[in-house]
Amino acid sequence: MSHPTPRFPRLRSLAVLTLGTTTALTLTACGAGSDTGAADAGKNSASATSAAKEKTTFRLGEASPVQESQMQSSRGATYAVTPTKVVTGTKADMDNSGLKQEKEDGPQVPVYVWSTLTHKGGKPMALGDMDDDLVVKTNAGQRTRALIVLLGQAKWPNCPAFDSDKKLAAGQSESICTAFLIPQGQKAAAVELTQGYYKQPLEWPVKS
């Protein structure tokens, strides 16, 4: 997985968290010159057709295509991500979490995403690296990454904290729950797995 994607802080402060949001991901494409000959044009056309057919939308419970780690400690390792369930929490969940928000963020509620992470091959890889590119998209088009508390974990109902440093070897898998924050009044519309600037993100729509 490429990591030129802009990084978003998963922690703003010890007790005060603000919501990191992404802007809409942009895709760029480069067309081949018209003077490269019929053979090259045919190859480019076939390549474009193949790319267009690549599946990018999945059902919850359906695994992603195999991803390749670009992390220094596990470069070349392969894995798959399978979001299985998404639940939008309540203001009471936020009030009881132990977290304090900055007022300028406005009221926020948690979104809980359950996923299964599967190590496919190569070097051992940390759970936190496998789910690092997961994003929640809201029904208003806003995107946000997961949050982490530096000292201790926030308390979420039925969404226990997991050891993000735990490493899996090839063939191993682990089910985890990850918490995201979105503006109160919005709902989770999809889970996305970003793939860098030049590839369309993978998406698992959430039924309202």
Features:
single chain; 208 residues; mainly beta; five-stranded antiparallel β-sheet; 3 helices; 32% strand; disordered N terminus
Any overview of this molecule?
- The chain is mostly beta strands and 208 residues long.
- It is 12% helix and 32% strand.
- It is built from three helices and 13 strands.
- Strands 2-9-8-12-13 form a five-stranded antiparallel sheet, with no helix packed on it.
- The protein is globular.
- The chain starts with 15 loop residues before the first strand and ends with a strand.
- The N terminus is likely disordered.
Map the helices and strands.
Layout: E1 16-17, E2 21-22, H1 38-53, E3 67-68, E4 78-88, H2 91-95, E5 100-101, E6 108-121, E7 125-126, H3 127-130, E8 134-138, E9 143-145, E10 167-168, E11 173-183, E12 188-193, E13 202-205
Parallel strand pairs: 1-5
Antiparallel strand pairs: 2-9, 3-4, 4-6, 6-11, 7-10, 8-9, 8-12, 12-13
Strand order of the largest sheet: 2-9-8-12-13
Give the topology string: H per helix, E per strand. Answer: EEHEEHEEEHEEEEEE
Using the CA coordinates, give the radius of gyration.
19 Å
Unreliable spans are: 1-38, 45-52
Give the percentage of residues in beta strands.
Answer: 25-35%
Instruction: Assign a percent range to the helix content.
Output: 10-25%
Please give a quick description of this structure:
Mean pLDDT is 79; it is low at 1-38 and 45-52.
